[in-house]
Specification:
By secondary structure, this protein is α/β, with parallel strands linked by helices. The chain has eight helices and 14 strands. One of its GO terms (molecular function) is mRNA 3'-UTR binding.
């Protein structure tokens, strides 16, 4: 009950402090896919069945602004929405940007953070025919996942296969849809091509390696630590290289006897895009992960 929510907030604050510290040290790490999930267990506060709890912020700032609100109304789904009982909520770097009001984010407060969740359908709106009560689902939201109940547009909900638990499901949507959109929808990857996943030990990079291998590409994955390199290798990359090394792209191409990449999935374009352009083959493509575009750019 209350203990579970308290632990949830405590872990969120620990993760947030770690992320803030990495930013101050100018390091870049993603909380890896299956370590970034906190599990919710619903337990009502009081007797009312119309009340829920959530982790909400009332001001922008550090981890200390994450607070439990105990008496929030359970949202009611609109005609095209689904009410979901949250079982697990994904924790993404963008949540910390919103909390701090950085990288182009300046949300109005109070606000419940969280962009992805998994859970069970409680009820559906009048126009929803694809889902029913009890279905296991994955949801994408603009915000709001750190709560016991959420409403989601039916077009932002997909079934959660039985082979995945709720924690795994809550870590799938943002990372895997981002990587799929970059590689398949935009770059239109083809079997036999050579792809570089720049930053392959993070969540989007992990998804990118798996998607590229599933489509029959030769995959080069980079990471910045020994642990990260091992993760990339175990994830299926054909070659791994430390992106902290000087001229690492040139070195790996020479090692494998290639002149350039057909496709690059770039997770940190602000540092790497210039070098990426130098090592593209003719008609090569780059998929760039963008957190948010500043309106002044």
């Amino acid at each position: 009950g209350n203990t579970v929510i308290f632990i949830f907030v405590l872990v969120l604050k620990i993760l947030a402090r770690c992320h803030d510290r990495m930013i101050r040290n100018k390091k870049y790490h993603l909380i890896r896919t299956f370590l970034k999930v906190i599990v919710f267990k619903r337990s009502f506060y009081g007797k009312s069945s119309n009340i829920m709890r959530a982790v909400r912020i009332h001001s922008l700032g550090g981890p200390s602004v994450l607070q439990i609100d105990y008496n929030l109304p359970i949202p009611k789904p609109a005609k095209n929405e689904i009410l979901v009982k949250v079982k697990a909520a994904g924790v993404n770097p963008v949540d910390t940007y919103m909390r701090q009001g950085i990288n182009g984010y300046n949300p109005s407060v109070p606000i419940i953070l969280g962009k992805e969740a998994s859970g069970e359908v409680q009820c559906v709106g009048a126009e929803v025919k694809e889902f029913k009560k009890g279905d296991r689902v994955i949801c994408a939201l603009s915000h709001g996942a750190y709560s016991e109940f959420i409403t989601c547009d039916k077009d932002s909900v997909i079934p959660l296969p039985d082979r995945f638990n709720f924690s795994q499901g809550a870590a799938l949507y943002i990372s895997y849809f981002t990587a799929y959109r970059a590689l398949v929808t935009k770059c239109k990857i083809k079997k036999g091509e050579l792809v570089l996943v720049h930053g392959a030990s993070g969540s989007v990079g992990t998804a990118g390696v798996q998607i590229a291998k599933a489509h029959g590409l030769t995959v080069i994955g980079t990471a910045g630590t020994a642990e990260g390199l091992e993760i990339v290798k175990k994830n299926g990359a054909d070659y791994v290289i430390d992106h902290r090394e000087e001229n690492h792209l040139q070195k790996i191409l020479q090692e494998i006897g290639q002149k350039g990449f057909d496709v690059i999935l770039e997770n940190r374009a602000c540092l790497n895009l210039n070098d990426d352009m130098k090592f593209l083959r003719e008609k090569g493509r780059i998929g760039v992960k963008i957190i948010k575009i500043n309106k002044n750019i």
